[in-house]
C-alpha cells in the first residue's frame, strides 16, 4: 500500500493554490485533504474547475485593464 504524500499548501504552484483555495471556499478542503481529489464527485470537481476558469479570466481581465491604464498614463505624461 502506497503512503499518502503530505501536501504543503504554502508550497504549491499558483494554479494548484487556486484549486485548493476554491475547494476550501466550497467546503471541500477537508475531504480533499483526508481522502484525496478522487473522493470528489464529478459535480464537485466540475464546480471547482468552473470557478477556477472564472477566476483566471477575471484576473486576466484585471491585468489587461491595469496595463491599458498604465499605457494611457504614460502617453499623457509624454
Any overview of this molecule?
This protein has 78 residues and is mainly α. The protein has one domain (14-77). 71% of the residues lie in helices and 0% in strands. The longest helix is centred in the C-terminal third of the chain and has 36 residues, at 42-77. The chain starts with 13 loop residues before the first helix and ends with a helix. The mean pLDDT is 91.
Task: Tag the structure with descriptive keywords.
78 residues; mainly alpha; elongated
| Uncertain regions spanning at least 5 consecutive residues | none
* Helical proportion, percent range: over 70%
What is the residue-mean pLDDT, rounded to a whole number? 91
Strand content: under 5%
Biggest sheet details: none
Number of helical elements: 3
Q: What is the overall silhouette?
A: elongated
User: How many domains make up the coordinates?
Assistant: 1
End-to-end distance, in Å? Answer: 66 Å
What's the total count of β strands? 0
Radius of gyration from the alpha-carbon trace, in angstroms: 18 Å
N-to-C series of helices and strands? HHH
Computed structural class: mainly alpha
Amino acid at each position: 500500500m502506497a503512503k499518502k504524500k503530505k501536501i504543503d499548501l504554502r508550497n504549491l504552484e499558483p494554479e494548484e493554490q487556486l484549486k485548493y483555495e476554491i475547494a476550501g471556499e466550497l467546503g471541500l478542503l477537508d475531504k480533499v485533504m483526508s481522502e484525496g481529489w478522487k473522493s470528489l464527485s464529478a459535480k464537485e470537481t466540475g464546480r471547482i474547475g468552473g470557478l477556477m476558469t472564472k477566476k483566471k479570466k477575471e484576473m486576466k481581465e484585471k491585468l489587461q485593464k491595469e496595463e491599458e491604464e498604465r499605457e494611457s498614463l504614460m502617453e499623457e505624461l509624454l
